Design the sequence.
């Protein structure tokens, strides 16, 4: 509900809060609203002493409050009332906040505008805080808290700091936090956290915060032990939780071994250490009542655990480390009090206990992962604790989500311990128990699995047939379910190696016993537990057959066996093809031949085959492929849906193809996949993905079938396109993605096919078929009559699949062979919609390789060949549409390119290459010159703005930006010069000097393309001409620019000569390369083997050191995101400028002004010599300088 004025304040009014005169930001003492320090420090010394005696304990100082309390015994009668500021502004703000909750949008807008105006007053944040603590109703309080949160967030400066926050406001904020109701506290604490990060964490400039918070905790209702309490304990701990949250991550990435921040050490010493005594007391109190839980006590325990977790997740405060043993014993006691027998009623207090148990396990994970010195001695107790938790995995089907998450984390703790040095000694004695009583029961199929299969098949697939088990590791933090965590633990166990042994044994306990005299190398071999223990255990379970398929126990157990095989993929890769062949042939493939259908097992078998695709031996692939095809076509069995079977089969086939398997015939597979695309969105979406994989794997073999396939798919995709402006569903997006893959595959066969006349005709016919089909699809998507005009009269289409749509549009343009096809394919109409879509597109982070830029260049080429309607100027719309000129194709493209240059570093190279194409390739008439001017203005402004951001240190992005400005300058020198000067004082000189720097040897990458250097030569000649036209032509800039002009001319000559030599030598080198191919292949294989053997596994210290160096380099500006290296190799298209003879331009300039340029400047003799050698015809002008 709180969206009106509150959110409007975030978007609009908050931006006006910076500046002088705001009491919240800058004024000390401007608004006298009371001090939290005096009220928080007033208390009863006797009560403090009593509580200190009760809370003090072994290993902790206890909450000794007397030292922080005032001796003043006079107390206010109303101890919980916040001292507020009554002002006219406060009286105005409260009703306005209530008005923002109105369902009337006009009322919300009016209230928001009024709040925007009041936000400039210095007392505004104080009034918001007063209302949040004591408003008329809860809605008003939450609205005030939310507005204050957004107000604070928008007050952050560009460098991440806040303007100075007054001491009075911080005191009042803390005081309000300690007593507001929970729903307000949840919002208000976010404003506090923003201030804490800046004032306390980054600047360490809030010295009163820790002592005041300590005093508040001491004088809170659950700790004060009497009627004298002032504050709410839960609120105080929530504030502490927000205070510690920033310390859960390392604060300074530039330091490899970062010390504990002094602020965290202070919090630990003053608050956390004495709080552990309180925690121990509350744990004893909570566990003493077996049959019930107290909500407040459980909340305190949970919040303290969260605070400790944030304190130790990355750092380890020195005062906290000695108390970890006693604290961990308390956590173990909490975990021991949890019940997983499904008979417990999940009341609110017990839910808090479960959350505390979950947080306890997260603390164990953090200790084992980050603080081995502190946790090694605790590991035996931790292992015993979690073993008592994981045994309840047998009840997984009856557990609620939170209880299952606890079991999952318990598995994760064991995995972490097993990855450590003492892990084998601690865990291996329990391998048999783990596999029998914990891991395997979690894998066995249960009632919840069957229910999810029937009710939500996609959720079943996500949880039980995961595609994210590529890495089996004890350090994973993304598993979340007991089954995934148990699979991961099984994988860690299978990859662990026991002590050296000579003979295999039946279990890990036996494998750890060795004779003292066994020193023979043969008896010193380490063997994987997967071989010694896991596989023998799984082999005990019989594979289902037609005879026993009716026995539920056998089916359920074998489901668990198949799930277990999924966790052994790392182990199986290490063992070679023999193990995989045996398992697949004897334990998986027989499931596909049963007369009785077992969809639950077949789906899991599909998943296993997909996971093992990378290590399947070649001789097994054909049998596996045949079985998967059978599963892909499995129909539903009565009331049982086989959707998971078909989906998992599609994924496994894709994995098989991606790992190099080629079916004997591709067409049956294509027809089978296309034939199953139906009205079911979800399944068809998966099939489109499989189709993409098939086309990518088949490549040229599949390409001949693409025209036929495309025609079949276009109709299916069209029916899923919504008849309104809603975003397209996933099935349409994946359909477009599949078509984009197909057209790319088709385009890849062009060079080979064009050499043969018959094939060339076939290819041309196929291209026309594809173009027509794509045109029909895009017309359905973009030009449907149901799309209404937007508010400005522009035709609207949903901004979906821009990248893939551009690939289809590019294919359509490639298929155009005459002007008649422009009308047939409705190219102008499609391009108008496309240009409008890309002009408003801002989803750059969603795509790495944008086809939009290739499409832009092809649009320009198409216009140059045939002339596109509405390309340069768009025709006025017919009545009844308003006679307002609308954006043409090139104008929409111009908006896109300008935004790409200005905003997106990764697209800068490609965007700048389009600048040259758009300015120089089209033929502009006198009537359309205004369009060209507007493009040049937008491009030069965007390029110079981006250049100013990065010019402090030379980088490769300089080149495309400076060349883009050069193209604009050659078109409209005076106009672009004005834009540069407006962007920055002396901007014209900055650009000209930087352009000359591109020619120096210190700049990388050097100018190497003929077109680039030619552009620089013409631009510098124009600059020199401009400088000579000034009243005082002599000067440093003129000399530097003329020097750069000569260097550019010499460089251009060198590049042209090198290019000619390369063309002459090219044929001879090709012949030599053919002879050396075989030798190079053998050498590369040897090199690969050597590199694999020498691969070094990075240690934690090396990892931290590497990232620290990278962080330093990034801060110093050494590392700048510069886009793909491939983008830097594109040739600059100069269009009409190609016809300009740059040598004649330079000759004319020197001939006309040689007395000023040569005789009046001190030019380097080496440069003059190089220039005259390259261009002897210029020697006449340089005779006196040599």
Sequence:
């Amino acid at each position: 509900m709180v969206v009106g004025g509150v959110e409007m304040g975030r978007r609009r009014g908050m931006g006006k809060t910076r500046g002088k005169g705001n009491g919240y930001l800058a004024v000390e003492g401007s608004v006298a609203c009371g001090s939290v320090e005096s009220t928080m420090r007033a208390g009863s010394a006797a009560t403090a002493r009593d509580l200190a005696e009760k809370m003090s304990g072994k290993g902790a100082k206890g909450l000794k409050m007397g030292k922080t309390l005032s001796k003043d015994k006079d107390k206010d009668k109303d101890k919980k009332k916040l001292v507020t500021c009554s002002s006219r502004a406060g009286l105005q703000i409260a009703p306005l906040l209530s008005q923002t909750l109105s369902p009337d949008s006009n009322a919300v807008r009016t209230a928001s505008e009024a709040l925007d105006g009041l936000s400039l007053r210095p007392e505004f944040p104080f009034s918001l805080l007063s209302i949040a603590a004591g408003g008329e109703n809860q809605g008003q309080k939450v609205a005030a808290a939310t507005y204050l949160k957004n107000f604070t967030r928008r007050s952050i400066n560009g460098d991440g700091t806040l303007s100075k926050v007054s001491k009075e406001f911080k005191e009042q904020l803390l005081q309000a936090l300690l007593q507001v109701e929970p729903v307000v506290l949840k919002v208000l604490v976010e404003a506090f956290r923003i201030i804490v990060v800046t004032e306390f964490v980054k600047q360490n400039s809030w010295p009163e915060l820790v002592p005041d918070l300590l005093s508040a905790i001491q004088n809170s209702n659950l700790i004060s032990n009497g009627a004298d309490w002032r504050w709410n304990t839960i609120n105080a701990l929530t504030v502490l939780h927000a205070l510690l949250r920033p310390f859960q991550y390392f604060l300074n990435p530039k330091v490899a071994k970062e010390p504990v921040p002094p602020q965290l050490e202070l919090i630990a010493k003053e608050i956390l250490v004495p709080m552990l005594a309180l925690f121990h007391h509350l744990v004893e109190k909570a566990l003493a009542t077996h049959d019930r839980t107290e909500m407040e006590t459980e909340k305190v325990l949970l919040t303290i655990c969260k605070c400790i977790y944030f304190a130790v997740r990355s750092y380890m405060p020195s005062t906290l480390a000695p108390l970890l043993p006693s604290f961990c014993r308390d956590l173990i006691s909490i975990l021991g009090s949890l019940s997983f027998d499904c008979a417990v009623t999940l009341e609110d207090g017990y839910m808090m206990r479960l959350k505390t148990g979950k947080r306890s396990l997260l603390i164990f994970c953090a200790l084992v992962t980050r603080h081995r010195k502190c946790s090694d001695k605790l590991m035996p107790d931790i292992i015993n604790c979690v073993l008592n938790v994981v045994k309840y995995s047998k009840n997984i089907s009856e557990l609620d989500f939170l209880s299952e998450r606890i079991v999952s984390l318990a598995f994760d703790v064991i995995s972490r311990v097993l990855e450590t040095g003492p892990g084998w000694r601690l865990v291996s004695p329990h391998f048999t128990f783990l596999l029998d009583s914990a891991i395997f029961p979690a894998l066995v199929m249960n009632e919840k699995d069957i229910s999810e299969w029937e009710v939500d098949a996609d959720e079943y697939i996500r949880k039980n047939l995961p595609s994210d088990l590529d890495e089996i590791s004890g350090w994973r933090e993304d598993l979340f379910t007991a089954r995934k965590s148990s699979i991961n633990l099984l994988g860690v166990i299978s990859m662990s190696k026991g002590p050296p042994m000579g003979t295999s044994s039946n279990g890990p306990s036996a494998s750890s016993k060795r004779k003292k005299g066994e020193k023979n190398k043969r008896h010193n071999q380490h063997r994987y537990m997967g071989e010694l223990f896991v596989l023998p255990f799984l082999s005990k379970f019989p594979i289902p057959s037609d005879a026993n398929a009716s026995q539920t126990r056998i089916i359920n157990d074998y489901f668990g066996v198949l799930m277990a095989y999924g966790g052994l993929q790392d182990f199986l890769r290490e063992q070679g093809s023999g193990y995989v062949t045996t398992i697949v042939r004897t334990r998986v493939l027989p499931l596909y031949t049963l007369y009785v259908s077992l969809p639950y097992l077949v789906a899991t078998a599909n998943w296993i085959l997909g996971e093992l695709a990378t290590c399947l031996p070649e001789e097994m692939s054909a049998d596996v492929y045949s079985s998967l095809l059978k599963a892909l076509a499995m129909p539903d069995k009565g009331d049982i849906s086989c959707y998971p079977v078909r989906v998992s089969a599609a994924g496994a086939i894709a994995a098989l193809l991606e790992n190099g398997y080629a079916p004997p015939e591709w067409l049956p597979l294509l027809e089978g996949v296309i034939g199953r695309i139906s009205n079911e969105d979800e399944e068809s979406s998966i099939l489109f993905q499989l189709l993409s994989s098939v086309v990518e794997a088949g490549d040229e073999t599949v390409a001949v079938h693409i025209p036929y396939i495309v025609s079949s798919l276009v109709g299916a995709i069209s029916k899923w396109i919504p008849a309104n402006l809603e975003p397209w569903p996933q099935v349409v997006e994946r359909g477009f993605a599949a078509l984009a893959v197909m057209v790319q595959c088709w385009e890849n066969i062009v060079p080979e096919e064009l050499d043969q006349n018959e094939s060339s005709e076939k290819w041309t016919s196929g291209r026309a078929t594809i173009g027509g089909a794509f045109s029909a699809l895009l017309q359905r998507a973009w030009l449907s009559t149901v799309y209404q005009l937007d508010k400005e009269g522009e035709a609207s289409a949903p901004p979906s699949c821009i990248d893939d749509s551009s690939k289809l549009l590019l294919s359509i343009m490639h298929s155009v062979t005459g002007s008649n096809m422009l009308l047939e394919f409705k190219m102008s109409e499609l391009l108008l919609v496309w240009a409008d879509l890309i002009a408003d597109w801002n989803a750059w982070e969603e795509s790495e390789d944008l086809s939009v830029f290739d499409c832009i260049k092809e649009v320009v080429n198409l216009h140059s060949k045939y002339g596109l309607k509405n390309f340069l100027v768009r025709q006025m719309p017919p009545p009844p549409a308003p006679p307002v000129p609308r954006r043409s194709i090139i104008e929409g493209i111009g908006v896109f390119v300008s935004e790409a240059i200005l905003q997106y570093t990764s697209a800068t190279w490609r965007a700048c290459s389009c600048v040259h194409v758009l300015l120089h390739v089209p033929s502009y008439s006198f009537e359309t010159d205004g369009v060209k001017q507007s493009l040049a203005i937008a491009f030069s402004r965007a390029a110079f703005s981006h250049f100013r951001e990065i010019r402090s240190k030379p980088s490769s992005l300089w080149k495309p930006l400076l060349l883009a400005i050069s193209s604009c300058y050659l078109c409209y020198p005076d106009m672009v010069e004005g834009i540069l000067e407006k962007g920055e004082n002396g901007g014209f000189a900055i650009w000209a000097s930087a352009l000359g720097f591109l020619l120096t040897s210190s700049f990388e990458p050097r100018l190497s393309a003929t077109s680039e250097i030619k552009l620089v030569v013409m631009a510098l000649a124009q600059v020199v001409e401009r400088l000579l036209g000034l009243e005082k032509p002599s000067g440093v800039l003129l000399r530097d620019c003329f020097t750069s002009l000569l260097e550019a001319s010499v460089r251009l000559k060198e590049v042209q000569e090198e290019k000619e030599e390369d063309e002459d030598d090219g044929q001879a080198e090709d012949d030599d390369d053919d002879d050396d191919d075989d030798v190079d292949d053998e050498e590369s294989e040897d090199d690969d083997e050597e590199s694999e053997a020498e691969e070094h596994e990075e240690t934690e210290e090396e990892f931290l050191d590497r990232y620290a160096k990278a962080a330093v380099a990034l801060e110093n500006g050494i590392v700048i995101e510069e886009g793909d290296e491939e983008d830097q190799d594109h040739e600059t298209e100069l269009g009409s400028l190609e016809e300009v003879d740059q040598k004649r331009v330079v000759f004319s300039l020197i001939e006309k002004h040689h007395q000023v340029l040569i005789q009046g400047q001190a030019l380097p003799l080496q440069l003059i010599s190089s220039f005259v050698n390259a261009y002897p015809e210029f020697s006449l002008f340089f005779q006196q300088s040599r």
